[in-house]
Design goal:
The protein is mainly β. It contains 1 helix and 12 strands, in the order αββββββββββββ.
Amino acid sequence: MKKVILTLSALLAITTFVSAQYKPSEGFTAEVNFRPFNANPISINYLKARMFLSEKMAIRLGLSLNTTNSSTKVAGAALSDPIQETVNKFFVFGLYPGIEMHYGNYERLSPYFGAEINFEMKSASTTISNNGNIQNDKLECTGIWADNTNPAYTAVGFNLLTGVDFYVYKGLYMGAELGFGLSTFSFKEIKVSSTVAATSVTSTISTPGAKLSNFGVAFNPAIRLGWAF
């Protein structure tokens, strides 16, 4: 968070000498998350678009997409042992519609407050082939990874927001945002199936899903980087 604040402060100082620009009174903006100190500074896992109905009011829609498909292989103790392969997958999809009310008559700054509804869902699974380095034995998990991380869920929530846009040059802006609200997570049922090839027997253990509610501050550690069309 300290790095984000320092970066924003530097940008404010640098752009003091740039000629005056104008904030959008109507039209669209699009933005991504910007983390200047990361190996991959621009993230497209979360995208947000806004439509300004007036200089003071905008409707917004955020979209998150994230997917992982990783494979690891482990050799057995003996050279003749089959290779155990573990494939972990997850997929996250989220929609975040909301509204913003902008205020103030600043030349470059556009502070705002607003509200947002959150909807998110995540699926997760693990498949282990030649489990335990035993030929054709298999372990399959749905609803979570085999190492008990990345549980699958459906989440809904509501956030009150406050933030600011700073227009750097023409339509280019940067900003930050802070939220406070409630989210409820419904974790999905977990199923673990184990197949023993020698006996052709498959056993399955199911664990019912659970619910969890979170109430508190939601802070995006990235700088919002966008363009007004």
